[in-house]
Amino acid sequence: MKVDQIEKGDKNMKILWYDTETTGLTENSAMFQISGVIEIDGEVKEEFDIFCKPHVGADISEQALEVTGISREQLDSFPPPKKAYEELVEIFSKYIDKFDREDKFIIAGQNVKFDIDVLNRFFKRNNDNYLGSFLNYKQVFDTLSVYTALEIADVVPKLENHKLETICKIMGVELSNAHNSLADIKATKEVGDKLLQGLRRIKKQKIKL
């Protein structure tokens, strides 16, 4: 979000835009890629793109591999999950004091509840039950939910489906490599920026909600 900040006077607005790719949709599927953009007070501070091999005994769907374009050989070549976990914690810890209850990332993404659940399971498999020390589950900006609300209000075109590719197309956002989490989250952020710009125009018109 190029934030002007959502409300003036807010300080240290820390937003984590992130997306994951997985080996399937079951609870025992594995996250093998996580990508993100860290934004503080409207300024991008860091991008990350982390791969890891599935945990032992993970469900691996051939359909998921086909969609993401990843082979089993590639999965086996990635670093172990523990290394990816440690890298993520190191990145998050640069910007968040996990012992400060008021210092957490706002979560942003497309259909981001799925990614929150995936990351929670990933942390727990690495013997860490405290992902919530970094993320604020009560402050979530989901581009899918915002677009749907504006669609219901007849502000944006109604879509036949709400895949990221479809929303990007209608909003003039390029998505060149769908189902790669880095490409997906960069496109999602651009969609989010445009949605916020539209909401700010409504605010300027002093429309009372």
UniProtKB/TrEMBL annotation:
Residues 14-201 form the Exonuclease domain. Gene3D superfamilies: Ribonuclease H-like superfamily/Ribonuclease H. SMART domains: EXOIII (SM00479). The keyword RNA-binding does not apply. Pfam families: RNase_T. Keywords: Exonuclease, Hydrolase, Nuclease. SUPFAM superfamilies: Ribonuclease H-like. InterPro entries: Ribonucl_H, RNaseH-like_sf, RNaseH_sf. GO terms for molecular function: exonuclease activity. It comes from the Bacteria. This is 3'-5' exonuclease.
